[in-house]
Specification:
The chain has about 325 residues and is of the alpha/beta class. It is built from 14 helices and eight strands.
Length: about 325
């Protein structure tokens, strides 16, 4: 289990409680009052720490290696998943998966970024950083959804699109730009959820949606905190300050109108109780699909256009 620096006191106390329980069992003595006091102390400590997280600490939770990934959520919220492979041009990008599925009784197309749990799988999945082929596969599958009049569910979890030479040579920027254009015109409902990291164009490449949701400890940003710090201060070590300045949490994004709803996570993050988060995610997705299904195609497209026209501010100098 991976432990973040600010979580160490919690895990140390949990270990002490387990040690006391084992000692009592071995010696066949009752130490329930002592254990109860420690458990009460543990709950207070958790509330104190997790109620006062900095934005940088929340970024660390969003990146936690034990956090559920796209395939984990598909297993928990969907049935009958049939994966679709390849972009019909170059190769099958395993950093971005897609396919047919059912959420409850609702047939959908579901897609999302996929990271790995160990080094070998991370290499295979390219750490969740999709190539242009991943984005071309994604739009190919979304056009299938449009053809069969199926809602689209996108799960976003990437530090960004892959910036390697090969990806750039094969048109990374163009692939993402075409996705933005084509997703804006899809005649079927699109619900996107940031489940972990929502980094730059890699995230928005499957994120042009009628409803944009975000898990409580996920983040959504035009650039990573480290990248921002490197540009502004020439020092990636200032990432915590950059995270504060970027205002990338669900609460900030809801205020700015970038996201439509923040989905609650258990204390400590989604990896603490993945089933609870999956239940909330499933209910929220189905609620928004139901709401969007009442709109005509033209109403859907008009509302999507208006949604993105309202995001951001600009000034014109006279």
């Amino acid at each position: 289990m991976s432990i973040l620096d600010f979580e160490k006191p919690i895990y140390e106390l949990e270990a002490k409680i387990d040690e006391l329980k084992n000692f009592g069992d071995d010696k066949k003595i009752s130490i329930e009052p002592e254990i109860k006091k420690l458990q009460e102390k543990l709950e207070k400590m958790k509330k104190q720490i997790y109620s006062n997280l900095s934005i940088w600490q929340r970024v660390q939770i969003a990146r936690h290696p034990d956090r559920p990934y796209t395939l984990d959520y598909i297993r928990m919220i969907a049935t009958d998943f049939v994966e679709i492979h390849g972009d019909r041009l170059y190769f099958d990008d395993l950093a971005l998966i897609a396919g047919f599925a059912k959420i409850g009784d609702q047939k959908v197309i579901i897609l999302g970024h996929q990271k790995g749990r160990d080094t070998n799988e991370n290499v295979k999945r390219n750490f969740g950083c999709a190539h242009p082929e991943g984005y071309r596969k994604a739009i190919r599958v979304m056009e299938l959804a449009e053809k069969f009049r199926l809602p689209i569910v996108a799960l976003i979890d990437t530090p960004g699109a892959y910036p390697g030479i090969g990806a750039e040579e094969r048109g990374q920027a163009q692939a993402i730009a075409e996705n933005l254009k084509d997703m804006s015109r899809l005649s079927t409902p699109v619900i996107a959820t940031i489940i972990g990291e929502g980094g730059s164009g890699g995230a928005i490449g499957i994120g042009v949606a009628d409803r944009v949701l975000i898990l409580q400890h996920a983040y959504y940003s035009v650039i990573s905190p480290e990248g921002c710090a490197s540009i502004l201060w020439r020092n990636a070590g200032k990432a915590p300050q950059a995270a504060e300045a970027l205002k990338i949490t669900g609460e900030h994004l809801l205020e700015f109108g970038v996201v439509d709803e923040v989905i609650k996570e258990p204390m400590g993050g989604a990896h603490r109780d993945a089933v609870y988060v999956a239940k909330n995610l499933k209910a929220t997705i189905l609620k928004h699909i139901k709401d969007l299904s009442t709109l005509s195609t033209q109403q859907l497209l008009d509302a999507r256009y208006d949604k993105y026209r309202k995001i951001g501010q600009f000034q014109v100098k006279k």
